[in-house]
Amino acid sequence: MTLKSVGLAAILSLALAFAGGAEAAPDYAVIKMSQTVDGPAAAIWAKVGGFCDLGVWMKIDCKITSGDGGIGSVRSIAGGRVTEVMVGKTDLSYGYAQPAVEGKFYNLYHGYLEAQAVTAKTSILNYTLTYDVSNLPDQAAKDADIARRRMMFMGALNAMKTLAEAK
């Protein structure tokens, strides 16, 4: 190996190190929320568990733009500003992800909603969000973002409870 090739390799390694170091290491926030609901899990899920039912309990527009509401279906919410893909589904749950958008920071955002039976007459709705907060400038901004999302989705869980318990 010549001195010239060693120097070129060192410059390339240094450039790669700086390029890799420019990105923040992922910092995943996990927000777990639950709401107890009076009623059997299947009956609750029938009222609030459709892939576009969030239009009712979050009071935003929702449209399934492809698929049949099962795995692989795509929904558009908030006037088309947000796209979400269903990535998992059971009889009483579904999981979704927001795809990467070219030119924007991708935070690997995933949500999971489920109805879980506690007794024959009582259930719990669980909502979990997981996403990368490394693009936020400091811990205070991360904490504020988590608090904002927790408040918004606890409001959604409360609305789901009201809808599910309605006669």
Total DSSP helices: 4
Helix-strand category: alpha+beta
What is the CATH H-level superfamily? START domain
Q: Give the uncertain stretches in residue-range form.
A: 1-22
CATH architecture: 2-Layer Sandwich
Beta fraction:
25-35%
Largest sheet: 7 strands, antiparallel
What is the number of independent domains?
1
Give the ordered list of helices and strands: HEHHEEEEEEH
User: Could you give the distance between the termini?
Assistant: 80 Å
User: What is the CATH class?
Assistant: Alpha Beta
The count of β-strands is 7
Coarse shape: globular
Evaluate the radius of gyration.
21 Å
Helicity level, as a percent range?
25-40%
Can you offer a commentary on this structure?
Helix 2 (41-48) packs across helix 4 (139-165). The protein has four helices and seven strands; from the N terminus they run H-E-H-H-E-E-E-E-E-E-H. It has one domain (25-165): Alpha-D-Glucose-1,6-Bisphosphate, Chain A, domain 4, CATH 3.30.530. It is of the alpha+beta class and 167 residues long. It has a seven-stranded antiparallel sheet with strand order 1-7-6-5-4-3-2. It is globular, with a radius of gyration of 21 Å. The relative contact order is 0.20. The longest helix is centred in the last third of the chain and has 27 residues, at 139-165.
